[in-house]
Design the sequence.
């Protein structure tokens, strides 16, 4: 593994994005979103997506120079036109708007339309939590979850994310999709030649299978429950934003790179002090999480964790020792310099300590 | 099975509640909530709970004559003191407040404190959806979900509920708890002498078991995911309301009936027309649900349903043919007349057609 510091990776992403004519404010939001995901160990949504995004800019799917339009429709609500830019940037613009609305109205909810893939939902919820608010973020995604009692996917593997500020540690952060297992994990099993567990995927005819090579759709958590949660997110993200839903959403990798994805997001901010004194809330949340972590363990070697704990631990490690990249990933990123004719480089972290 | 009409059952509940000195507005909200749950086939949260609630009034847990106190803390937010009355009534008061806030601010969110069991979350979300708003309702519940990697329950089997108005049919309504199976279903398996499926429950030492007699805690959907969802609800319902969380919440049936439960609820209203024209939204939601129901079926005999479909079908049937009660349930309800000295009776629906 090659290790690269977060600062170095951020600068490199920024150089490339700006070199590809992405406006500086947009590039900044995207670079930060990608590096934050990589730093937190959410590699599926991290810097490895940069090559795809640059192709999508070149192909015309992503608008590098968007004109945002924000309509404040009531004191606590608004609609944001993302003008088909990166979801990271449109989502972050919405998060800022939601925070501003909540400052005045107690809560702020923004539906984003004409957007694209926004990376990890936690990026927006954590930004909102920095302001002593509860952050909420969801997005529509293309059809991937097997319909309950059906044979095909209809709803997406839509994320549900909530972050809440906490005393003495980074915010609580739940960021989960509605499938039992991610498609990335299925791909890893394919590469490793290992079977998938029962109950995670189905083949193209909708029959459950443990053969990762034939899994083409994912099974939701709790059967009809996870499918219902996906549909709830579809209502908030696709219908409140006026965007297409489920099977009508162009697929991220399969659709032509000139095609807009027309994703919708739902971003919310809830001001803590509209309900409880901020310090009381943060102290009680810390107390609840500590109490939970101290519960008796099923296996003495396996710590009890709360949502976000694995990401916090990973971020702490990677901040110190760098973000790990395979040689192929590292060279793939470096080769973008030549592909797009940008004068930059990506340096290894020389003092990186491999765990 | 004995069948009783919804109107008759509502009148009977109202007579008993008022006969037990429950204030008329409170009794009306409770009777309607109980009968709506029974009508929609959610029997676990329906009229069969009336004997328990009356005992809780007599025992001093439930305040039959509450003084609500509502603090509007910002244009879109408020806190409601339920004064330890029935959760049905405090929750409905919060739903009305949330709707009023949303009329002005686009959204309205109310945290309820000093409340008690509120029955089915759908009651409040559906009330809000009648006003062309998306309704959201959750509540804290006592510890019942096995902690992921732990051996005991800490978080509750907290419901997540969202209702949205839809053209040409009753609102979409997702109302789900975070466990794979309800405890009521476990009790039914006990009574029937049947084993539980794998992956739904654990014994008092936290070991998974299929013996319904030894199941003492429930497993969450998707392992750590359902556990994370419960924790999310705990933050919204227990911490934003300033109420106790998880293991500190007195249990519904086990705690003395003089003990207040101190539950918290989170009730929200999102005005559709703050985001999209109402008719467009409702038409698109209807279209999406119809498209989903017309998806190819895995088994030709099993229709594809969306959240709330089973309850809609049941409500339609029970509206016509009455709400079914076992002879024991029927006599149990009738015997409350004597127990509390209330002059009333519960008449069978004479034209009830047993399916």
Sequence:
């Amino acid at each position: 593994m090659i290790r690269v510091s977060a600062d170095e990776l951020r600068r490199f992403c920024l150089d490339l994005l700006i070199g590809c004519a992405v406006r500086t404010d947009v590039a900044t939001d995207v670079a930060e979103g990608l590096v934050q995901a990589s730093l937190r160990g959410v590699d599926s949504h991290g810097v490895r997506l940069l090559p795809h995004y640059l192709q999508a800019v070149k192909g015309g799917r992503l608008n590098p120079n968007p004109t945002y339009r924000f309509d404040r429709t009531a004191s606590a609500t608004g609609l944001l036109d993302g003008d088909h830019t990166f979801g990271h940037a449109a989502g972050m613009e919405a998060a800022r708007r939601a925070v501003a609305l909540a400052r005045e109205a107690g809560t702020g909810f923004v539906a984003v339309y004409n957007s694209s893939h926004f990376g990890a939902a936690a990026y927006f919820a954590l930004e909102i939590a920095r302001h002593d608010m509860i952050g909420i973020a969801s997005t529509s995604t293309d059809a991937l979850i097997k319909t309950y009692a059906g044979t095909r996917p209809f709803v997406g593997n839509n994320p549900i994310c909530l972050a809440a500020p906490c005393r003495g540690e980074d915010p609580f952060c739940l960021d989960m999709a509605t499938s039992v297992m991610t498609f990335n994990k299925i791909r890893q099993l394919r590469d490793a030649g290992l079977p998938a567990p029962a109950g995670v995927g189905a083949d193209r005819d909708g029959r459950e299978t443990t053969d990762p090579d034939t899994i083409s759709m994912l099974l939701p958590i709790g059967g009809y429950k996870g499918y219902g949660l996906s549909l709830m997110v579809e209502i908030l993200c696709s219908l409140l934003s006026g965007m297409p839903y489920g099977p009508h959403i162009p697929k991220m990798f399969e659709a032509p790179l000139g095609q807009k994805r027309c994703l919708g997001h739902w971003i919310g901010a809830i001001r803590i002090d509209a309900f409880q004194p901020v310090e009381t809330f943060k102290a009680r949340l810390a107390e609840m999480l500590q109490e939970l972590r101290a519960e008796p363990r099923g296996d003495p070697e396996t710590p009890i964790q709360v949502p976000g704990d694995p990401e916090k631990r990973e971020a702490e490690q990677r901040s110190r020792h760098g973000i790990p990249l395979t040689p192929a990933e590292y060279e793939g990123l470096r080769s973008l310099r030549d592909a797009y004719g940008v004068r930059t480089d990506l340096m290894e972290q020389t003092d990186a300590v491999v765990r």
